Amino acid sequence: MEESVRKEKETIRKRVWKLLMEHKVARPPFPIEGRIPNFVGAEEAALQLASSRVFQKAHVVFCNPDSPQRFVREAALRQGKVVVMASPRLRSGFLVLDPSRIPRRCYVEASTIAGAFKYGMRILDNVPPIDLKVAGSVAVSLDGGRVGKGGGFSDLEYGILRELCAVEEATPVATTVHPLQIVGNIPMLEHDVPLDLIYTPSNFIEVKRQRKKPVGVYWNLLSHEQVESIPLLKVLRNKLKP
């Protein structure tokens, strides 16, 4: 079953990447295949999220490092929120951006990956409590299903945050997408994180999800090589040892 789900997700990815290119709504970086795709309207979708009640109430926002969500990270900094960002492939743990420690004129730069390394503080396991998690998506469904670019890092990030008690079941998970990224159905596995909120350039959808979120890291699904390549996982594994 797990293999068939993975194959179906890859089919969905390829279909959505192709749709975005055919309709000329994909934006750099190119090629979009293998990425969380940037899209025309990404800034407007971020503004929809940034003006929402759940965003306004949040003090700490966790956001993925991908291009279309750069506007979300910038908006959070401009609203005085602490931004926690995963480093690419989690190789450098998490990056914490405190807007009070960053010159306001540098918020745009700080919201990029290179800028986050320049202005942010690298941390491993001392993550502040997260009020809102923002995930990048290749495709989403109206029941909360989500497909990423295929590396599994967004779900792994959530599992790590859950183990660290930085998020809980009630912590909302949101994404910003182009309408073409909304599909009919997405199969989900036990470790996949369902969405609560979907924002497009002109609309938002409050998902009535049926699935619960993962309770932590599913260690049995990780190879020895994966654990060894991510320092944060090694730290967490040692902390959890009896």
Compact overview of the structure:
The chain is α/β, with parallel strands linked by helices and 242 residues long. Helix content is 34%, strand content 17%. It has an eight-stranded mixed β-sheet. The protein has a three-stranded mixed β-sheet with strand order 9-8-11, with helices on one face.
Key attributes of the depicted protein:
single chain, 242 residues, alpha/beta, Rossmann fold, eight-stranded mixed β-sheet, 9 helices, globular
Explain this structure to me?
By secondary structure, the chain is an alpha/beta fold. It has a single domain (2-240), classed as 3-Layer(aba) Sandwich (Rossmann fold). It is built from nine helices and 13 strands. It has helices at residues 2-22, 42-50, 53-57, 70-78, 107-110, 113-119, 153-163, 224-229, 231-240, and strands at residues 26-27, 38-39, 60-63, 82-86, 94-97, 121-123, 132-134, 139-141, 146-147, 173-176, 182-183, 197-199, 204-206. Strands 6-5-4-3-7-10-12-13 form an eight-stranded mixed sheet. A three-stranded mixed sheet has the order 9-8-11, with helices on one face. α2 packs parallel to α4. It is globular, with a radius of gyration of 17 Å. The chain starts with a helix and ends with a helix.
